[in-house]
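Lay summary

Proteins are chains of building blocks that fold into shapes. Our project writes down both the chain and a compact code for its shape. Here are two examples, one after the other.
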Amino acid sequence: MARQNLSSARGNQAYEETGVEVHLNVYDLLVPQIPASMTAAMYHMGVGFYHSGVSIFGTEYCYGGHPDDSTGVFEVTPKEAPEARFRETIIIGKTMMNPLDVAILVNQMAASSFWRGNSYNLLTRFVQSRRMYAMLNY
């Protein structure tokens, strides 16, 4: 996906007065060994394998693992994460940040060693979207 031009932070004052909704998009991970019918049954039991991303200003920001020592932060078109099936959107709050501030924050996160792809751990980093939102809502 081509990166949006976020340098034109239009209408900054409106964001500061009312805030902008931040969405959490939740996906079922597409695990080849698990049939879709089992994923659906697991969901109804309150368990499953999920991916999530924080969506704001028409871009969804995600974190995922890979073996390289490079950032695990990536952007996708909202509701179109790779290797996952979109399940639902949850409104998690509002931010007073404008598009340029969000872009700066995400770039800082991407440069941080905390968000490296090879440091991803399903058991210890599963709350990344909550952490991302907390940073947006400073």
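And here is the second example, written the same way.
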Amino acid sequence: MLIQLDASRHDWLEGRGPILSLLGAIDDARGSIAPSLFTVLTLLLEVALAQESVLHSGWEGSVLLLELNRPQARNALSFELLEQLSDALRTEGEKARAVVLTGAGGRAFSAGFDMKELTGRAGDMAADTAIGNAVDAITHCRAPVIAAIEGYCHGAGVELAVACDVRVASRTLNLALRAVSLGVVYRFELLSRLALLCGLGRAEHLMLTMPSLDAATALEWGLVGEVVEPGATVARALVLARALEASPRSAVAGTKASFVMIAEMARTQAALEHADALRREAATSPEREETLARALERLGSRGAGGGQSPKKA
């Protein structure tokens, strides 16, 4: 279920709700309060946040606003969130002249897929399918999708962002793809898109050496189109969306569809099938099981809200 929001007020987009403010204050004060108290307070606030929908939606004219709403987990992508995002883009997105996609809380667009959901419920390939469905919904939405990126954009969060037609990032951007260290081979669609955006050499460097890119580097590499001040990404995205809103819809949709065809030219059936086999081989390897277990152990020992950046796939 989506929460319908009053687009005349943007406190939900700016992460200024009382629960989020308290969560941020507690996180900032972590070093000065007892660990047990920190854990209890954080868990109580996370329970309150969990009662909310994991995806917020609202309208500004004919611009659809979508917000990934798991700020307590730096908007890590769950199966539920990906399903709601896919559904919203396929239904509400068809009515829109443009779509703005962002993350709640102001600290992260998305830290990647939530690896806690890989245990017990499904494996890598199920997550692969869920992410692929959301990416396809972004790609085939008739309206252009603009990503407004604050803070962390890691793993599957990068996959969503690069699937968008336009990317606006703040100076706080921290972009990383650490799949190789986690025993994961990413979908061929992402790798081909990265190669188109920043060139084959830089795409390989990004995937194999796994650096964290700041906003200036991401802009230089072509991974984002604009960099703005922290907290200003949604406002800038709305300016761009309104320009699209005022343009003939057939021309906007036709231009987007043409670029989608360019991006799909390298995706032959044989290439996709071979890439799928490579992903399955990596997903079922003993090394992947070991790295996933270690990553989950680190997440558990770090505690709620701890650490610099959660390890997500």
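What can we say about the second shape? The first helix runs from residue 11 to 14.
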